[in-house]
């Protein structure tokens, strides 16, 4: 068996692992990137990019279906095979780019094979190499969680790891879950002509914690989607042409229906199988997870660091990239690890209406010193012009000094409004300062200005605002 001696061994060549390797190399260390599967990140293969390709097709179909609102008569003919072919072609192009980038890493910094711990900083890889490191970064990502009713028929259900390989759109689809992945993919499929039904044992729709925004979002989704909430899935039976699902409703009645395909989108879990983390000496919880400090990526005081989806903090690409950098930097400098500031939290769901959460969420607000301003998009000028006038934006500020704390929203253009707010929160802008920023007319961003004005009024800070920052415009 070969032996490799390195400064930092990095298990997993996804977004977090690649950034950890780069951080170690930049600081002059000797990294070794270990990958047990094919190169290519979760985002490129089964996450951000293929899902947005599906959503883009759905948006095109939805635009045609809604054209009559503008006096335009049109009919869409959806070619499911063409939809999936383009998705797969573009996805494969994104993946190829990532793979090429990974393969450009010097060969002596890469190793293929499944890694498992044999000690605190020693690994066996693929049965062919023993790796001895000063520190280890675990960046093995996550995998879809398949709940018990579907475990026995796992090979018959789709997950977000497999749905993008369908050769054609199914006639019907049951979606298990009402979280971000479930809503994005399920709504896209429905807008592409698939009969879609959502099932969830919970009453929640999406990740929102602000009760008012959640109420508005839920109403919007209920108008379009078939949501079977508070249902208990009893079993799934393979039959000719699909799966027969049997469930119990909130009132105790049992129902059943057959679907051509079933998408299980009940969340993802850290990839820990086969790592034998117990051999590292780390204290593990009942799920086999060690405690991880989000500011250092370190597990306790050990020379072991977790980054990306496997760490279980915020499973988003930009967060994984940051965690990888933090983990790689601290792994090389261990035991002199340093706490590093994280960016303002920012998450976006590409549903319609879009959902976004920035900074402190509603359920994280200090109750005694926060104030909320809001705007409804029902009468907002630009939203009415484009026929997307539904949704609610709520912005949070510290009532003592007017510093922006965060926001939750469901509405048009949330992906852009959320970025503006994330930048403002990270800069610790006050509400009057944010109102001095330029706002064009007519744009959706004027809705953000209205929410800030409402917030300024509630904070009794209108006197601190310039006259021109409070001027009215048509549709505001």
Automatic annotation (TrEMBL):
EC primary class: oxidoreductase
Q: Which residues form the FAD/NAD(P)-binding domain?
A: 7-324
Q: Which GO terms describe its molecular function?
A: dihydrolipoyl dehydrogenase (NADH) activity
The reply to whether Oxidoreductase figures as a keyword in the UniProt entry is yes
Asked if the Swiss-Prot or TrEMBL record annotates the protein with the keyword Ribosomal protein, the reply is: no
User: So which cofactors does this thing need?
Assistant: FAD
Q: Where is each Pyridine nucleotide-disulphide oxidoreductase dimerisation domain found?
A: 348-451
According to the UniProt entry, what is the EC number of this protein?
Answer: 1.8.1.4
Q: What would be one Pfam family of this protein?
A: Pyr_redox_dim
Question: Which InterPro entries does its entry note?
Answer: FAD/NAD-bd_sf, FAD/NAD-binding_dom, FAD/NAD-linked_Rdtase_dimer_sf, Pyr_nuc-diS_OxRdtase, Pyr_nucl-diS_OxRdtase_dimer
Gene3D superfamilies referenced in this protein's UniProt entry, alphabetically: 3.30.390.30, FAD/NAD(P)-binding domain (3.50.50.60)
- Keywords in alphabetical order: FAD, Flavoprotein, Oxidoreductase
The entry's family comment says: Belongs to the class-I pyridine nucleotide-disulfide oxidoreductase family.
Enumerate the PANTHER family for this protein.
Answer: MERCURIC REDUCTASE, PYRIDINE NUCLEOTIDE-DISULFIDE OXIDOREDUCTASE RCLA-RELATED
**Record protein name field:** Dihydrolipoyl dehydrogenase
């Amino acid at each position: 068996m070969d032996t490799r001696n390195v400064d930092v061994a990095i298990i997993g060549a996804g977004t977090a692992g690649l950034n950890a390797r780069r951080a170690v190399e930049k600081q002059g260390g000797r990294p070794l990137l270990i990958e047990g599967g094919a190169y290519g990140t979760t985002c490129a293969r089964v996450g951000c990019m293929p899902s947005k390709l599906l959503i883009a097709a759905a948006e095109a179909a939805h635009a045609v279906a809604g054209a009559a609102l503008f006096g335009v008569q049109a009919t869409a003919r959806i070619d499911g095979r063409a939809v999936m072919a383009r998705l797969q072609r573009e996805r494969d192009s994104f993946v190829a780019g990532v793979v090429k980038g990974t393969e450009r890493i010097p060969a002596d910094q890469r190793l293929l094979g499944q890694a498992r711990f044999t000690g605190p900083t020693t690994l066996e890889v693929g049965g062919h190499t023993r790796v001895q490191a000063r520190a280890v970064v675990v960046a093995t990502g996550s995998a879809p969680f398949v709940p018990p009713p579907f475990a026995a028929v796992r090979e018959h259900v789709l997950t977000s790891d497999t749905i993008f390989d369908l050769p054609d759109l199914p006639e019907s689809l049951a979606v298990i879950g009402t979280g971000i992945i479930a809503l994005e993919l399920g709504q896209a499929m429905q807008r592409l002509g698939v009969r879609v039904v959502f099932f969830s044992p919970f009453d929640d729709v999406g990740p929102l914690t602000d009760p008012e925004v959640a109420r508005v979002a839920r109403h919007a989704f209920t108008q379009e989607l078939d949501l079977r909430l508070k249902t208990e899935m009893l079993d799934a039976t393979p039959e000719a042409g699909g799966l027969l699902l049997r469930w119990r409703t909130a009132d105790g009645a049992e129902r059943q229906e057959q679907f051509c395909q079933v998408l299980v989108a009940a969340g993802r879990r850290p990839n820990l199988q086969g790592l034998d983390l117990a051999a590292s000496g780390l204290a593990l919880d009942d799920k086999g997870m060690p405690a991880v400090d989000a500011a250092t990526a370190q597990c306790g005081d050990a020379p072991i660091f977790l980054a990306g989806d496997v760490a279980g903090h915020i499973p988003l690409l930009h967060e994984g990239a940051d965690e990888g950098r933090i983990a790689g930097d601290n792994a090389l400098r261990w035991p002199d690890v340093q706490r590093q500031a994280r960016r303002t939290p920012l998450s976006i769901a590409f549903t319609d209406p879009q959902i976004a959460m920035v900074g402190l969420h509603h359920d994280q607000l200090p109750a005694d010193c926060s104030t909320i301003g809001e705007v409804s998009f029902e009468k907002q000028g630009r939203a009415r012009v484009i026929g997307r006038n539904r949704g609610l934006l709520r912005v949070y500020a510290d009532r003592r000094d007017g510093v922006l704390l965060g926001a939750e929203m469901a509405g048009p253009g949330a992906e852009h409004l959320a970025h503006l707010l994330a930048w403002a929160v990270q800069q610790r802008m006050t509400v009057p300062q944010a109102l001095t920023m330029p706002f064009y007319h007519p744009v959706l961003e004027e809705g953000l200005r209205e929410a800030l004005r409402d917030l300024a009024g509630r904070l009794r800070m209108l006197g601190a605002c310039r006259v021109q920052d409070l001027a009215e415009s048509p549709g505001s």
